[in-house]
Amino acid sequence: MAKLEGKVAVVTGASKGIGAGIARALGREGAAVVVNYASSKAGAEAVVAAITAAGGRAVAVQGDVSKAEQAHGLIEAAVERFGRLDVLVNNSGVYEFAAIEEVTEAHYRRLFDVNVLGVLLATQAAAKHLGEGGSIINISSAITDVHTPTAAAYAGTKGAVNALSGVLANELAPRKIRVNVVSPGLVVTEGTHTAGVVGSDMEAGIVAQTPLGRAGQPDDIAGVVAFLASDEARWLTGEVINASGGIR
């Protein structure tokens, strides 16, 4: 039997990139998947189509997780559609670099609102419905370890995700809800293409520091998330797993 058979999962920011890969992987493992998107309805519907074509169950639900009403609405829609909630993957994120001279209040607030507040709001909404064995997986970044220039605000958001995940792991442990972090290295996605990282000197430098010698792909991250979502990871909480090809 698939390891997530009978479970219901919400994946935020799942219309493309790592989120889409995670949603497809959870669907392959038997979960009913709520594919969240903020603006790319077509992308989310394509992910849903891929899951259903493979015999799975999925639905696309719009919602900006940095807004409390929409984050709570997303979770309520999942429960209304599938009757329960077992897994929350907080993947929504803004990937944006700026040199320190170019950092603005708007840049800072955009990143922290989506990357940090969004995690808190979605988790707050999901905690009402998750029961014993529930799993929350937060997507961070290896950038918290490699300290890439021009990434101060972005790295700050991911450091915050790591810290709040540890707190929530302890806070939710009495209810037997697990909270873990997956921290990807450089992954080839639409976002890293748009940011100009893929094909750049930055990519070459990161790959040169990566022991396994390549950039990651969404499926490299998705398999780790599927494991953490499953009962196979029942003794893991408060962990940060670096899915980074070994970069430190």
TrEMBL record:
Alphabetical UniProt keywords: Oxidoreductase
What is the native source organism of this protein?
Methylobacterium radiodurans
Give the UniProt family note.
Belongs to the short-chain dehydrogenases/reductases (SDR) family.
Q: Which residues cross the membrane?
A: none
Q: Point out the signal peptide segment.
A: none
Task: Please name the Pfam families in this protein's record.
Answer: adh_short_C2 (PF13561)
Q: Which GO terms describe its molecular function?
A: oxidoreductase activity
Q: What is this protein called?
A: Oxidoreductase
